[in-house]
Amino acid sequence: MQNEGGTQMAGLDLSHRTILVTGASRGIGRAVALALAAEGARLALTARDAQRLAETAEACHAAGAGAVWTLAGDVRDRDFPARCVAGAEAALGPLWGLVNNAGVGHYTPVEELAPEHWDEMMEVNARAPFLFSRAVIPGFKARREGHIVNIASVAGTTTFPRGAGYCASKWAVMALTDVLTAELKPYEVRVTAVCPGSVQTGFAGSTPKPWSLRPEDVAEAVVQAMTARTGVIYNTIIMRPQVPPEAQA
Ligand code: NAP
After folding, report:
1. Does any ligand 1 atom lie closer than 6 A to the CB of residue 58?
2. How confident is the model at residue 208 (pLDDT cuts 50, 70, 90)?
3. Domains defined along the chain, listed by start
4. Which of 59, 106, 123, 185 is least surrounded by CB atoms within 10 angstroms?
Protein backbone atom coordinates (compact mmCIF):
# COMPACT_ATOMS: atom_id res chain seq x y z
CA MET A 1 0.00 0.00 0.00
CA GLN A 2 1.20 3.58 -0.75
CA ASN A 3 0.11 6.95 0.68
CA GLU A 4 -0.49 10.12 -1.36
CA GLY A 5 3.21 10.95 -1.31
CA GLY A 6 3.97 7.59 -2.87
CA THR A 7 5.82 6.21 0.15
CA GLN A 8 5.44 2.60 1.24
CA MET A 9 2.75 2.10 3.94
CA ALA A 10 2.49 -1.68 4.26
CA GLY A 11 3.53 -3.06 7.61
CA LEU A 12 5.64 -6.11 8.18
CA ASP A 13 3.87 -9.45 7.86
CA LEU A 14 4.52 -11.57 10.95
CA SER A 15 3.05 -14.78 9.57
CA HIS A 16 5.77 -17.40 9.29
CA ARG A 17 8.15 -15.30 11.41
CA THR A 18 9.31 -17.08 14.55
CA ILE A 19 9.21 -15.13 17.81
CA LEU A 20 10.29 -16.15 21.31
CA VAL A 21 8.29 -14.72 24.23
CA THR A 22 9.49 -15.05 27.84
CA GLY A 23 7.09 -14.98 30.78
CA ALA A 24 4.33 -16.33 28.52
CA SER A 25 2.48 -18.28 31.22
CA ARG A 26 0.26 -15.35 32.28
CA GLY A 27 -0.26 -11.60 32.29
CA ILE A 28 1.37 -9.43 29.64
CA GLY A 29 3.47 -12.27 28.18
CA ARG A 30 0.37 -14.38 27.57
CA ALA A 31 -1.41 -11.43 25.93
CA VAL A 32 1.64 -10.73 23.73
CA ALA A 33 1.77 -14.40 22.67
CA LEU A 34 -1.94 -14.36 21.78
CA ALA A 35 -1.64 -11.11 19.82
CA LEU A 36 1.34 -12.45 17.86
CA ALA A 37 -0.57 -15.70 17.28
CA ALA A 38 -3.42 -13.69 15.76
CA GLU A 39 -0.84 -12.28 13.32
CA GLY A 40 0.00 -15.87 12.32
CA ALA A 41 3.46 -15.86 13.92
CA ARG A 42 5.29 -19.05 14.88
CA LEU A 43 5.87 -18.94 18.62
CA ALA A 44 8.43 -20.20 21.12
CA LEU A 45 7.07 -19.68 24.63
CA THR A 46 8.79 -19.99 27.97
CA ALA A 47 8.10 -19.55 31.72
CA ARG A 48 8.51 -21.77 34.78
CA ASP A 49 4.90 -22.97 35.12
CA ALA A 50 4.62 -25.79 32.54
CA GLN A 51 0.86 -26.19 32.93
CA ARG A 52 0.02 -22.51 32.42
CA LEU A 53 2.49 -22.46 29.52
CA ALA A 54 0.65 -25.37 27.90
CA GLU A 55 -2.63 -23.47 28.36
CA THR A 56 -1.14 -20.40 26.64
CA ALA A 57 0.15 -22.62 23.83
CA GLU A 58 -3.29 -24.14 23.29
CA ALA A 59 -4.90 -20.67 23.20
CA CYS A 60 -2.23 -19.52 20.70
CA HIS A 61 -2.99 -22.46 18.41
CA ALA A 62 -6.67 -21.52 18.53
CA ALA A 63 -5.81 -17.85 17.83
CA GLY A 64 -4.00 -18.73 14.59
CA ALA A 65 -0.34 -19.25 15.46
CA GLY A 66 1.68 -20.84 12.66
CA ALA A 67 3.30 -23.20 15.18
CA VAL A 68 3.89 -23.22 18.93
CA TRP A 69 6.80 -24.69 20.88
CA THR A 70 7.21 -24.42 24.66
CA LEU A 71 10.01 -24.93 27.15
CA ALA A 72 9.47 -24.60 30.90
CA GLY A 73 12.41 -23.23 32.83
CA ASP A 74 13.81 -20.56 35.11
CA VAL A 75 15.44 -17.56 33.41
CA ARG A 76 17.62 -17.13 36.52
CA ASP A 77 19.45 -20.30 35.47
CA ARG A 78 22.44 -18.78 33.65
CA ASP A 79 22.45 -21.50 30.95
CA PHE A 80 18.70 -21.47 30.34
CA PRO A 81 18.41 -18.58 27.82
CA ALA A 82 20.96 -20.06 25.37
CA ARG A 83 19.40 -23.52 25.80
CA CYS A 84 15.93 -22.11 25.17
CA VAL A 85 17.02 -20.24 22.02
CA ALA A 86 18.83 -23.35 20.69
CA GLY A 87 15.79 -25.55 21.41
CA ALA A 88 13.40 -23.09 19.78
CA GLU A 89 15.54 -22.88 16.63
CA ALA A 90 15.92 -26.66 16.46
CA ALA A 91 12.13 -27.06 16.67
CA LEU A 92 10.90 -24.07 14.64
CA GLY A 93 13.82 -22.81 12.56
CA PRO A 94 15.64 -19.47 12.86
CA LEU A 95 14.18 -16.93 15.25
CA TRP A 96 13.19 -13.53 13.87
CA GLY A 97 11.93 -11.94 17.10
CA LEU A 98 12.46 -11.93 20.86
CA VAL A 99 10.16 -10.44 23.49
CA ASN A 100 11.93 -10.18 26.86
CA ASN A 101 8.90 -9.98 29.12
CA ALA A 102 9.48 -12.19 32.21
CA GLY A 103 9.70 -9.99 35.28
CA VAL A 104 9.37 -9.79 39.05
CA GLY A 105 8.85 -6.95 41.50
CA HIS A 106 9.51 -6.50 45.23
CA TYR A 107 8.61 -3.10 46.63
CA THR A 108 10.10 -2.13 50.02
CA PRO A 109 12.30 0.63 51.45
CA VAL A 110 16.00 0.04 50.78
CA GLU A 111 16.87 -0.90 54.37
CA GLU A 112 14.18 -3.62 54.34
CA LEU A 113 14.85 -4.94 50.82
CA ALA A 114 16.22 -8.50 51.09
CA PRO A 115 19.45 -8.93 49.08
CA GLU A 116 17.88 -12.08 47.60
CA HIS A 117 15.00 -9.98 46.25
CA TRP A 118 17.43 -7.40 44.80
CA ASP A 119 19.29 -10.28 43.08
CA GLU A 120 16.07 -11.83 41.78
CA MET A 121 14.93 -8.55 40.19
CA MET A 122 18.33 -7.93 38.62
CA GLU A 123 18.58 -11.51 37.34
CA VAL A 124 15.04 -11.84 35.94
CA ASN A 125 14.42 -8.24 34.78
CA ALA A 126 17.89 -7.28 33.54
CA ARG A 127 20.30 -10.22 33.24
CA ALA A 128 17.84 -12.52 31.45
CA PRO A 129 17.11 -9.96 28.67
CA PHE A 130 20.90 -9.61 28.26
CA LEU A 131 21.39 -13.40 28.06
CA PHE A 132 18.45 -14.00 25.68
CA SER A 133 19.62 -11.09 23.49
CA ARG A 134 23.18 -12.44 23.53
CA ALA A 135 21.88 -15.80 22.31
CA VAL A 136 19.80 -14.45 19.40
CA ILE A 137 22.09 -11.66 18.16
CA PRO A 138 24.55 -13.76 16.09
CA GLY A 139 21.68 -15.22 14.03
CA PHE A 140 19.90 -11.86 13.69
CA LYS A 141 23.13 -10.20 12.52
CA ALA A 142 23.94 -12.98 10.06
CA ARG A 143 20.44 -12.80 8.55
CA ARG A 144 20.40 -8.97 8.73
CA GLU A 145 16.91 -8.89 10.23
CA GLY A 146 15.19 -9.33 13.57
CA HIS A 147 13.49 -7.48 16.38
CA ILE A 148 14.13 -7.48 20.13
CA VAL A 149 11.36 -6.04 22.34
CA ASN A 150 12.11 -5.48 26.02
CA ILE A 151 9.10 -5.05 28.29
CA ALA A 152 10.54 -2.46 30.63
CA SER A 153 8.30 -0.13 32.67
CA VAL A 154 7.71 3.53 33.45
CA ALA A 155 9.88 2.50 36.44
CA GLY A 156 12.71 2.47 33.89
CA THR A 157 12.13 6.15 33.15
CA THR A 158 11.55 7.47 36.68
CA THR A 159 11.97 6.33 40.30
CA PHE A 160 9.73 6.11 43.36
CA PRO A 161 10.12 5.27 47.06
CA ARG A 162 10.11 1.48 47.74
CA GLY A 163 11.19 0.86 44.13
CA ALA A 164 15.00 0.79 44.45
CA GLY A 165 15.61 -2.72 43.15
CA TYR A 166 12.77 -2.73 40.65
CA CYS A 167 13.68 0.69 39.22
CA ALA A 168 17.39 -0.24 39.09
CA SER A 169 16.58 -3.41 37.14
CA LYS A 170 14.31 -1.54 34.70
CA TRP A 171 16.81 1.33 34.23
CA ALA A 172 19.36 -1.40 33.45
CA VAL A 173 17.13 -2.89 30.75
CA MET A 174 16.55 0.60 29.30
CA ALA A 175 20.32 1.07 29.06
CA LEU A 176 20.63 -2.37 27.46
CA THR A 177 17.94 -1.37 24.94
CA ASP A 178 19.79 1.83 24.03
CA VAL A 179 23.12 0.08 23.55
CA LEU A 180 21.55 -2.73 21.53
CA THR A 181 19.77 -0.20 19.31
CA ALA A 182 23.10 1.38 18.38
CA GLU A 183 24.96 -1.92 18.05
CA LEU A 184 22.33 -3.63 15.90
CA LYS A 185 21.11 -0.77 13.70
CA PRO A 186 23.87 -1.38 11.12
CA TYR A 187 22.53 -4.93 10.77
CA GLU A 188 18.91 -3.80 10.27
CA VAL A 189 17.91 -5.40 13.57
CA ARG A 190 15.36 -3.32 15.51
CA VAL A 191 15.19 -2.92 19.28
CA THR A 192 12.24 -1.52 21.25
CA ALA A 193 11.54 -0.85 24.93
CA VAL A 194 7.85 -0.89 25.89
CA CYS A 195 7.32 0.97 29.17
CA PRO A 196 3.85 0.48 30.64
CA GLY A 197 2.49 2.08 33.76
CA SER A 198 0.11 0.04 35.90
CA VAL A 199 -1.30 -3.04 34.08
CA GLN A 200 -4.15 -5.28 35.31
CA THR A 201 -2.16 -8.45 35.98
CA GLY A 202 -1.71 -8.71 39.74
CA PHE A 203 2.03 -8.22 39.17
CA ALA A 204 4.04 -8.39 42.41
CA GLY A 205 0.87 -9.08 44.39
CA SER A 206 -0.74 -5.78 43.38
CA THR A 207 -4.51 -5.39 43.34
CA PRO A 208 -5.52 -4.52 39.78
CA LYS A 209 -7.18 -1.11 39.44
CA PRO A 210 -10.18 -0.92 37.07
CA TRP A 211 -8.54 1.99 35.24
CA SER A 212 -5.17 0.25 34.77
CA LEU A 213 -3.97 -0.68 31.30
CA ARG A 214 -5.04 -4.11 30.09
CA PRO A 215 -2.40 -6.70 29.15
CA GLU A 216 -3.93 -6.56 25.64
CA ASP A 217 -3.05 -2.83 25.42
CA VAL A 218 0.62 -3.66 25.96
CA ALA A 219 0.40 -6.55 23.49
CA GLU A 220 -1.02 -4.16 20.89
CA ALA A 221 2.01 -1.88 21.35
CA VAL A 222 4.35 -4.85 20.84
CA VAL A 223 2.55 -5.83 17.63
CA GLN A 224 2.58 -2.19 16.46
CA ALA A 225 6.37 -2.01 16.92
CA MET A 226 7.03 -5.40 15.34
CA THR A 227 4.79 -4.84 12.31
CA ALA A 228 6.12 -1.34 11.56
CA ARG A 229 7.30 -1.20 7.98
CA THR A 230 10.99 -1.79 7.33
CA GLY A 231 12.83 1.46 7.93
CA VAL A 232 10.83 2.48 11.00
CA ILE A 233 12.12 1.84 14.54
CA TYR A 234 9.90 2.36 17.56
CA ASN A 235 12.64 2.84 20.12
CA THR A 236 10.70 3.56 23.31
CA ILE A 237 6.95 3.27 23.81
CA ILE A 238 5.75 4.79 27.09
CA MET A 239 2.17 3.90 28.02
CA ARG A 240 0.16 5.27 30.93
CA PRO A 241 -3.40 4.55 32.02
CA GLN A 242 -5.86 7.43 32.01
CA VAL A 243 -6.46 7.67 35.77
CA PRO A 244 -9.89 9.17 36.57
CA PRO A 245 -9.63 12.53 38.40
CA GLU A 246 -11.25 11.13 41.58
CA ALA A 247 -8.54 8.41 41.82
CA GLN A 248 -5.66 10.88 41.51
CA ALA A 249 -3.81 11.78 44.70
P1 NAP B 1 2.98 -11.44 35.90
O2 NAP B 1 1.55 -11.61 35.58
O3 NAP B 1 3.45 -11.63 37.31
O4 NAP B 1 3.83 -12.37 34.93
C5 NAP B 1 5.24 -12.47 35.07
C6 NAP B 1 5.74 -13.51 34.09
O7 NAP B 1 7.16 -13.65 34.28
C8 NAP B 1 5.10 -14.87 34.33
O9 NAP B 1 4.82 -15.48 33.09
C10 NAP B 1 6.19 -15.63 35.06
O11 NAP B 1 6.10 -17.00 34.74
C12 NAP B 1 7.47 -15.02 34.47
N13 NAP B 1 8.62 -15.17 35.36
C14 NAP B 1 8.81 -14.57 36.56
N15 NAP B 1 9.95 -15.02 37.12
C16 NAP B 1 10.48 -15.92 36.25
C17 NAP B 1 11.64 -16.73 36.28
N18 NAP B 1 12.51 -16.71 37.30
N19 NAP B 1 11.87 -17.56 35.23
C20 NAP B 1 11.02 -17.60 34.18
N21 NAP B 1 9.90 -16.85 34.09
C22 NAP B 1 9.64 -16.02 35.14
O23 NAP B 1 3.48 -9.97 35.50
P24 NAP B 1 3.15 -9.03 34.27
O25 NAP B 1 2.44 -7.86 34.80
O26 NAP B 1 2.58 -9.78 33.15
O27 NAP B 1 4.64 -8.52 33.94
C28 NAP B 1 5.29 -8.82 32.73
C29 NAP B 1 6.39 -7.78 32.53
O30 NAP B 1 5.79 -6.49 32.47
C31 NAP B 1 7.43 -7.71 33.64
O32 NAP B 1 8.71 -7.53 33.09
C33 NAP B 1 7.02 -6.48 34.43
O34 NAP B 1 8.11 -5.88 35.09
C35 NAP B 1 6.47 -5.60 33.33
N36 NAP B 1 5.54 -4.56 33.78
C37 NAP B 1 4.39 -4.88 34.45
C38 NAP B 1 3.55 -3.85 34.87
C39 NAP B 1 2.27 -4.13 35.63
O40 NAP B 1 1.70 -3.21 36.22
N41 NAP B 1 1.76 -5.34 35.62
C42 NAP B 1 3.87 -2.52 34.58
C43 NAP B 1 5.03 -2.24 33.89
C44 NAP B 1 5.85 -3.26 33.48
P45 NAP B 1 6.26 -18.22 35.79
O46 NAP B 1 5.83 -17.74 37.13
O47 NAP B 1 5.39 -19.29 35.19
O48 NAP B 1 7.71 -18.55 35.71
Report:
1. no
2. confident
3. 18-241 (3.40.50.720)
4. 185
- The residue whose CB lies within 8 Å of the most ligand 1 atoms, and thus the one to mutate among 20, 21, 26, 200, is 26
Residue positions annotated with a catalytic role: 166
Instruction: State how far Cα 42 lies from the chain centre.
Output: 16
Q: CA-to-CA distance for 37 and 68, rounded, in angstroms?
A: 9
Site to probe by mutation for ligand 1, drawn from 70, 77, 101 as the one with most ligand atoms within 8 Å of Cβ, is: 101
Distance separating alpha carbons of residues 84 and 75, to the nearest angstrom: 9
180 CA from centroid of ligand 1 (Å): 22
Alpha carbon of residue 72 to chain centroid: 17
Give the separation between CA 142 and CA 136, rounded to whole angstroms: 10
Is 47 a residue whose pLDDT tops 70?
A: yes
